[in-house]
Predict the structure of UPF0266 membrane protein EV697_101285.
Amino acid sequence: MINILILSSIFLFFLYAFYDQFGMDYLKGKNKLKVRLKKRAKIDSLIFIGLIAIIFYQTKANIPTVTIYLLSMTIVLSIYIAFIRYPQILFKEKGFFYENIYITYDKIKAVNLADNHIIVIDLKNTKHLSIIPDNTQDIEKIVNFFGGYKK
């Protein structure tokens, strides 16, 4: 039972990774701008890897070989998600993808440049999106995409 649960989680992760890396590029029109964002979930991933290591240590002899391989695969996937993969924001013709969610431009109330190279997008539903580009030169690209600086 646990192997089926782990295997289905791995399969769902591969679907998510495929959608994240390739699927969003083809949805909702052509890309106008693609910007890599800073990684965030490194500590969470290290905690997850540590918990799996504790499971290995606690039940050395009682784990079937298939379960060991599946848990090892989850460790590899968590290393990929935290240390190899970069989150990105994709600007399209009528909206943008941020954290795999499509938001149309008409839902934007304001775009502000905050300290420490953070772009804050205020939405009309009172939510705020903090965009932290990996490369600080991408801030100019984003600002120019939204029409430049306004006073």
In short: The beta strands are 33-36, 88-91, 95-98, 101-104, 108-114, 118-123, 128-131.
